[in-house]
Amino acid sequence: MRPLRLALTLAVFAALPAVARAQIPPSPSPSPSSSPSSVSDPCGSILSIVTRPTITTSVCTVRQRKVLLETGYTNTTTTGRGGGYTASYPQALARFGSGDSQFEYDIVPPSANVVNFGGTRTSGTTDLGFGVKSELGYNARASWGANAFVTIPSGSPGFTAGAAQYTGNFNWSYTVNPTIGLSGTLGFNSLAGLNVNNQVKRFFSFIPSIIVSAYYPANSYFFAEYTYFSQAGVGLGGRSLFDYGFVHDVGPHLQLDIEAGVQPTTLNGQRLHYIGAGISFMN
Question: How many angstroms separate the CA atoms of 87 and 74, rounded?
Answer without folding.
Answer: 6
